[in-house]
């Protein structure tokens, strides 16, 4: 006990942790648990036998494990849906990061009349609910003959205000002397952006990419409306059929298969976040602190 | 080679006038230093020459060619920034070769020119490193290398040594002077450090509030300052200014009454059109080295308030003299606070400033 207390005290000293920090720490832990518990429940259920899912006593961890649920998920065209999702999320994310960086750079570093008003307009567009614009947009795509196509899945997502915002905040703090040195060296606006500014914006680019990829990967409503063929469905639309509603696959296979499908859906976003976590936090904090 | 001519240059930022009608010519091959206190407009003037700012009024010509509308890259110049402004994501070689790459110089030629510049600056071993892996002095060398690799007609330096420690600053100062001697290219250098200005310049341009106070060689500025501002800005410790009053006006000279003066009345040779009248308030300017402990015809009584040892000499400060604060450079035996002294004045080296601030002595 004494050893434990000594180690605890040493830990608190090393991390400059005082008793005043304890309530903050406890609230943080509670929030973290509230976010993490459904995830654990999802993964746990996906590994259970159907008869172990509904039990009188809550079983956080399965008493016996099976991967049959994952096998059953793959009996559906999940790979095709995942491929569609990857194309849709990958291309839309890449383009929205690129365009967000260009717009953010222009709004932060270039002087032109109405610049700040334009940025305010960008931000104001966040107040328009998707539902208001989605039907006219759908009709437009159908009229152009682009329904159930990759263009239809990708194009509405290539401009993102959040990406513009995060890059603008980064470029506001960009050293003017580096830009001036590039101008003296003979770089015009495009070469200055692509050769100097963009390579130095790795942190906001990664932060924007992680968030936008997650948003695009999980995007449900638009792909649901615009894809009419099974082969063009994205993963969220495809596995929606596993939702616990009468007449869906969940009724046939049980919750454990649905949870296996959702677990598969969450893997790419999580992997991306964990891989790029350091840059993500750097990018987000730059965006907020440097403003 | 480049001769830079500024005619009637004015720069306004909104209502603020940063540069006010400057006329100046920097001759081909000259090392000109713009010096002045913070906010005097020296960096703005450099940026106007560079093309990073556009003059509100006036004309800039390089070798008789009007450069209005010509971007920085088209002016055949190179600029070294205060923060070095190296591209952090590029190696030293890439940094140095970037301007050549922008100009479409083939890769092989780029490599040759970068290697040659690196050899000149003794940074060959650093070529593959990134800027973050370099010390301050090495970064400064790379920034200079990036400038010389372009073989420009004009070098612009914006306080390039201000981020270096004292020892390195002296070293780099000597290297820059050597570089100028070797390249014989026109160089314009901005600093707020008058020691840098005095040691490096062929010509110093002293600026205040967007105007040129005086332009001339270091010796001219030191020995014949045009006005009180230049006299106080150039020289360390700065010149002593003692309040005095004109008691007699004769052709070619005036007699002044200086509080606390012992010995003969002070007669100062003045220019023809000095405009002084009896009873006018004036200031006598005496450099610290022109006061001494030797007996002279004109003497000031002073009590030392503190002394500073500066290596080989002492700076003696007397704060309570009735005519003003006094500093004396003394190379003899130590003198301590509280000692009363009689300071001899070298009248021939004194300056007289009218109430307008203009120097009227010759």
TrEMBL record, chain A:
Where is coiled-coil annotated? none
The residues that cross the membrane are 20-41, 86-107, 119-142, 148-171, 192-215, 255-276
Q: Which CDD domains match?
A: TM_PBP2
Note whether Membrane occurs among the keywords: yes
Tell me yes or no: is Cytoplasm among this UniProt entry's keywords. no
Q: How does it sit in the membrane?
A: Multi-pass membrane protein
Biological process per Gene Ontology, one example term:
transmembrane transport
Which InterPro entries would you find in this protein's record? MetI-like (IPR000515), MetI-like_sf (IPR035906)
Q: Which UniProt keywords apply?
A: Cell membrane, Membrane, Sugar transport, Transmembrane, Transmembrane helix, Transport
Please, which domain of life does this record's source organism belong to?
Bacteria
GO cellular component terms given for this protein: plasma membrane
All copies of the ABC transmembrane type-1 domain together span: 82-276
Location(s) in or outside the cell? Cell membrane
From which residue to which does the signal peptide run? Answer: none
Query: What family does the entry list?
Result: Belongs to the binding-protein-dependent transport system permease family.
Q: What is this protein called?
A: Multiple sugar transport system permease protein
Which source organism does the UniProt entry give?
Ancylobacter tetraedralis
Instruction: Tell me the classification of the organism that encodes this protein.
Output: Bacteria, Pseudomonadati, Pseudomonadota, Alphaproteobacteria, Hyphomicrobiales
Automatic annotation (TrEMBL), chain B:
PROSITE patterns named in the record: ABC_TRANSPORTER_1 (PS00211), ABC_TRANSPORTER_2 (PS50893)
**Which cell locations does it reside in?**
Cell inner membrane
The UniProt keyword set, sorted, is: ATP-binding, Nucleotide-binding, Sugar transport, Transport
Q: Does the keyword Transport apply?
A: yes
Annotated InterPro entries: AAA+_ATPase, ABC_transporter-like_ATP-bd, ABC_transporter-like_CS, ABC_transpr_MalK-like, ABC_transpr_MalK/UgpC-like, Mo/tungstate-bd_C_term_dom, NA-bd_OB-fold, P-loop_NTPase
Molecular function as annotated in GO:
ABC-type maltose transporter activity; ATP binding; ATP hydrolysis activity
Enumerate the spans annotated as ABC transporter domain.
4-234
User: Per UniProt, what is the membrane topology?
Assistant: Peripheral membrane protein
What does the entry list under GO cellular component?
ATP-binding cassette (ABC) transporter complex, substrate-binding subunit-containing; maltose transport complex
Transport found in the keyword field: yes
Query: NCBIfam families attached here?
Result: PRK11650.1
Stated family: Belongs to the ABC transporter superfamily.
Protein name, entry field: ABC-type sugar transport system ATPase subunit
Protein's organism: Ancylobacter tetraedralis
PANTHER family per record: MALTODEXTRIN IMPORT ATP-BINDING PROTEIN MSMX (PTHR43875), MALTOSE_MALTODEXTRIN IMPORT ATP-BINDING PROTEIN MALK (PTHR43875:SF3)
